[in-house]
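Hi there,

I know you've been waiting on this one. I reran it after we fixed the sequence typo, so this is the corrected version. Both the input and the resulting structure follow.
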Amino acid sequence: MLTRAPHRASRVCALAEAALPAERVSHMSQDPTGKLRPGAVTTAEAKERMRVALQTLLRARKIAFANTFVGDRALLVKQLRGYRYEFKQPNDAFGTVKRVLTGKRGDQQDDLAIALQLAIMWSQYGDERSIITLRV
């Protein structure tokens, strides 16, 4: 069943593209194959933009848990607190040290932190005609 999900998502994108004016459909995946497959970019630059967007909302106290939040609040908070820059050492003497945003350490994951940041980014994406409400 999981193997069908990307196919369904691609089909939804194709239907939306056929039904909506071209300027209203965005493929944010930036798929390099040109097939416009759905997905999310998680390059270093994209992660930094998402981090800044989340940090801005948190500092302005414009984001909070909804009363109807379904999920593990403690796990989300733990992942957000563990999400930070780390220095990744090169595999050989010729490589360079990379600074990466991650929350993956040992058995810890950062999926919820990334999902929240994607939701924030997508809620801010669009034009003045787009009305998107973000509730977590």
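Quick highlight: The radius of gyration is 18 Å.

Best,
R. S.
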